[in-house]
Amino acid sequence: MKYELSPSILSADFARLGEEIKAVEQTGVNYLHIDVMDGMFVPSISFGFPIIKSIRKMSNMVFDVHLMVEQPERYIEETAASGADIITIHAEACKHPDRAIEQIHQLGKKAGIALNPSTSLHELDYLLEKVDMVLLMTVNPGFGNQKYIPYCTGKVKELRTMIEERGLQTDIEVDGGINAATIDAVLEAGANILVAGSAVFGKETAKNAEKYRKLLADYQENHK
Ligand SMILES: O=C(CO)[C@H](O)[C@H](O)COP(=O)(O)O
């Protein structure tokens, strides 16, 4: 399994966004987590497609776009056109997730389905075979720098078992409160793509990105 750090630019200094992204990219981190928030599905509003288009021009990282918006199907085409590589929609926000996932694949992008902490894994019963990634929120979505919700560890474990029992290779991404105190638990539970916002961006962005990149590379090396 491949382990990836996906630094969330929600915690970056937007006045120096290009520099911040370069700092993580230069350490060899492959993914970049991009949260689009609409002020409806989640309380806050982050940024939209003009920003994604601009940063696409200066970065070759895998753009891991997390649509925290109501009726995300309205924006799938624009997300793809902006330069996303992975498009993740929330099961709670979408009336026809099966159709939305198909649309993402038709546009040549990887599809992710996201679940809030208290949303049951049963939402995945008929979708798991269709997605490339499941994003499990490990905080209630909407803000960076929140505390990891401990019951999510069991949920990650349960999902990894479900994936293995079905003979799939689906990625599990965890998002929210991932830092030095929680990283071991989510890795041991079976997550392989780790979003980290406040643990990476800040005064020592490059140093933090390198620390977690290396930790994941070592973990991968020891779990072949
Ligand atoms: O989805 C999110 C919040 O809703 C974000 O990805 C958030 O940036 C994670 O931040 P942190 O690592 O600081 O918890």
TrEMBL record:
HAMAP family: RPE. GO terms for molecular function: D-ribulose-phosphate 3-epimerase activity. The keyword Acyltransferase does not apply. Pathway: Carbohydrate degradation. Belongs to the ribulose-phosphate 3-epimerase family. It is an enzyme of class 5 (isomerase). A divalent metal cation binds at residues 33, 35, 66, 175. This is Ribulose-phosphate 3-epimerase. The lineage of its organism: Bacteria, Bacillati, Bacillota, Clostridia, Lachnospirales. It comes from Hominisplanchenecus faecis. It catalyses: D-ribulose 5-phosphate = D-xylulose 5-phosphate. Keywords: Carbohydrate metabolism, Isomerase, Metal-binding. Its cofactor is Mn(2+); Co(2+); Fe(2+); a divalent metal cation. The active site is at 35 (proton acceptor), 175 (proton donor). Substrate binds at residues 8, 66, 175-177, 197-198. CDD domains: RPE. Binds 1 divalent metal cation per subunit. Catalyzes the reversible epimerization of D-ribulose 5-phosphate to D-xylulose 5-phosphate.
